[in-house]
Amino acid sequence: MSLNKKILKAHHNRNLSLLVELYQEAAEKVLTRQEQNFFRVQAYIYALEVGHHLTPILHKKLVKDGVEE
């Protein structure tokens, strides 16, 4: 199953923890910093909602890229 389909399925099932991981995976697969930050922001939002263990890692990366304070 493609990553896009996995993301859509996770949204449909409201599996927020899985969405964090899938959006982080998407961020690692794209080419531009802008695309990476888009997917990391999505991952970070869901991570904050569920208290995901990736929250501090995502925050650190977004701060480094000047997206988050």
Could you walk me through the main structural features you see in this protein, from its secondary elements to its overall organization?
This protein has 69 residues and is mainly α. The protein has one domain (3-64). Helices cover 75% and strands 0% of the residues. It is built from 4 helices and no strands. Helix 3 packs antiparallel against helix 4 (55-64).
The gist of it:
With 69 residues, the chain is an all-alpha fold. The protein has one domain. Helices cover 75% and strands 0% of the residues.
Map the helices and strands.
Elements: H1 3-12, H2 16-29, H3 33-50, H4 55-64
Helix pairs in contact: 1-2, 2-3, 3-4
Percent of residues in helices: over 70%
Number of domains: 1
The 3D shape can be described as: flat
**Quaternary structure state of the chains depicted:** single chain
Distance between the termini: 35 Å
Question: What is the average per-residue confidence, as pLDDT, rounded to a whole number?
Answer: 96
Order of helices and strands: HHHH
Low-pLDDT stretches: none
List keywords for this structure.
mainly alpha; single chain; 69 residues
